[in-house]
Design goal:
The chain is of the alpha/beta class. The chain contains 6 helices and 7 strands, in the order αβαβαβαβαβββα. The longest helix is centred in the middle third of the chain and has 14 residues. The protein is globular.
Length: 192
């Protein structure tokens, strides 16, 4: 695993020990950032279930102004901190929270955090967490108006279609994974 582009290009990233995390492959990460494009520059980025932090670190490397990392696993947080230190990012550019994702989202809403991009990579072993996080994000208030949310699932995973505020506008398959892209529903989408 490595940083693909930007300020920290080529830096090697560690993965947390054990089987509790599934690091995103360089191929998936590169495809994701090709879709996001140069809009990542100056953005606020949230990395949920961050693990090693490789997606949020890639966002920082490509010019995101601020990245917030959230993961509950202490080993993942330790590796994430090592990876950030290795990439030599200014500590003013990121925040790390060791917390349950749902509790952390409540805290961020109270603090009025707003993000342009939200990347979500829940554990594939917890079938119910995908619906829970999507419904939580659908009711949430942490997305800026034109924000994009991306969730990684196993390839054959069906996600809920009855969201009120979010709509899926793209899905791309990569091996055993799928990246689902969401945006907030606006008046133009309703007219269609």
């Amino acid at each position: 695993m490595r940083v693909i582009a930007g300020k920290a290009k080529g830096k090697r990233l560690k993965a947390p020990p054990g089987l509790s995390t599934r690091p995103v492959t360089d191929m998936i990460k590169e495809a994701l950032f090709n879709v996001l494009g140069s809009d990542i520059m100056g953005s606020r980025f949230l990395d949920l279930f961050a693990g090693s932090g490789s997606v949020g670190i890639e966002a920082l490397s490509r010019g995101a102004a601020q990245v917030v990392f959230i993961d509950l696993d202490a080993r993942a947080i330790r590796v994430l901190k090592e990876n950030l230190d290795n990439c030599k990012f200014d500590s003013q550019c990121f925040e790390i929270y060791r917390n349950d994702v749902f509790r952390a989202l409540d805290i961020m809403e109270r603090k009025k955090y707003r993000f342009d991009y939200i990347y979500i990579d829940p554990p594939f072993s917890d079938e119910e967490i995908f619906d829970r996080i999507l419904y939580r994000m659908d009711k949430g208030e942490i997305m800026n108006q034109d924000a994009r949310m991306i969730i990684r699932t196993r390839r054959q995973k069906n996600l809920p279609l009855d969201l009120e505020c979010l709509m899926e506008y793209r899905a791309d398959n990569y091996g055993e994974s799928t990246l689902h892209y969401y945006k907030q529903i606006n008046e133009e989408d309703i007219k269609k």
